Amino acid sequence: xxxxxxTDMHTFGTELPAMFDGVKLAAVATVLYIIVxxxxxxxxxxxxxxxCQDTPLSRYLLKSCPMLTKEYIPPLLxxxxxxxxxxxxxxxxxxxxxxxxGVRKFLPMHDGATASFDIFEARGEHSTGDDIxxxxxxxxxxxxxxxxxxxxxxxxxxxxxxxxxxxxxxxxPDVELTSPRMFTYGCTWEYAAMVGYIKRAFPQTSLVVxxxxxxGNIVLKFLGENRSNxxxxxxxxxxxxxxxxxxxxxxxxxxxxxxxxxNFVLADKMRKLxxxxxxxxxxxxxxxxxxxxxxxxxxxxxxxxIDDCIMRKxxxxxxxxxxxxxxxxxRHIHKVxxxxxxxxxxxxxLVHQSLLAIPRTLAEKMPNTTFALTxxxxxxxxxxxxxxxxxxxxxxxxxxxxxxxxICHWEKKRPACQRSSHPGIDxxxxxxxxxxxx
Length: 438
Fold this sequence. Notes:
alpha/beta, Rossmann fold, 10 strands, 40% helix, 13% strand, disordered C terminus, EC 3.1.1.6, serine esterase, glycoprotein, lipid metabolism, membrane
C-alpha cells in the first residue's frame, strides 16, 4: 500500500511542473489576447475617409493637403486605441509642450460678465505675405494655458499666423466671475467679442476660425447665426465635436465604448469648476442659481443633470431639451458659406458614430464643406509616432495649418473683384456631389 502511494505521489510530482507551465502559458496567451483586443493592434492604418463635393476648390485642397489623402499612422503600441489616445491627451496634453508668450485682454460684456482671451503674435511672415489671425475656441472648460492649445499656437505662430485664444468664462483658475454666468455649450457672446476686437485692432487681417470639441460647436454656431459674422473669414476648422447636443447627451447615457464613464468624469470636472465659483454665482445680483440648484449639482452624475440644474438657467431656458436644441450648431451650420473642414475620429469614445451622419450629409450637400474621418485618433488625440513615443506635433496640428495654408493661397490667387464674396460659394464651386474615399 505504501509503495503504491509513494509511486503515485512521485508520478504526480513529476507532472506538477508541466501543469504549472501550461497554466503560465495559458495566462500569458490570455493577457496577450486582451492586450491585442484592447489596444486594437490588428486594426490597419488608413488615410482619412474624405467626403466632399467634386468642385475646383475640393480638388485643389485634396491636391494641396497631402495629409488628408495619406495614411495617418498612430504610435504602434497604443495609438490605435481611442481610449488611450483620449486619456493621454487629457493627462499629458502634448509632448515637450512649448510656452508661447501672449498678451491677455479683458472685455466687459453687456450683462456684466468679463470675457478674456490671449493674443499671440506671429513669429514669422506667412507664406502668402498676408496678415492672418487664427481665432481659436478651446474645448470644454479649457483655455489658452492648456497643453494642446499651447502646442498648436506655437506651431501656428511659426507658420506666420497671429493667434487669438478664447479663455472660456470661468475656466481660468485665477480669474473670478463678474456676473452670475459661466460658459455654456453654445453661448457665442465671448467668442463674438474676441472676434470683434481682433477685427477692430487689426483692420487688415483675415480670419481663420478654429474650434476644438465644444469649441467647434461654438464657432460654427457663431458663423451661422449672422451672415456678417463670416466677413473677413477665410475658412473654418472644427475638430472632434458632436454637432447635436441633444443626440450626443442621449448617447452619453450608454455604456457602449465606456461613454457613461466618460460622462461621469466630465460631469465631475464641471461640478468642481462650477463649485469653485459658487460664491459669485450665488451672491451676484440677478442670479438664477440658488442653494437648491447647487445641492442638485453636488448629486449630479452626468452632464445632462448639470445642464438641467445649472447651465440652462444662465440663459433662461425652461428645459434642458430647449437648451440643447437652441445651443447646437446643427441648426446653423448649413448657413455657413466659407470653406469648412470638419474632422472626427471613428474611435472617438465621446462622439457616437450616429452623430457623424450630420457632417457627412452636410459635406454631400454643401460645396464648401469637407468632412475628414480618421480611423484612429480618439478625442483630440491624433498622436503620431513610430512605436511607443509620440511626436511633439500631432496629426491634427499639422492638418489644420496645412488646410489653412491651402485656403490662403487659393484666396490669394483669386481675382481681386471676387475676394469680397465668400470663397465657398462662387460659381466655381457649383457641381454635382461626389464622395471620394482616402
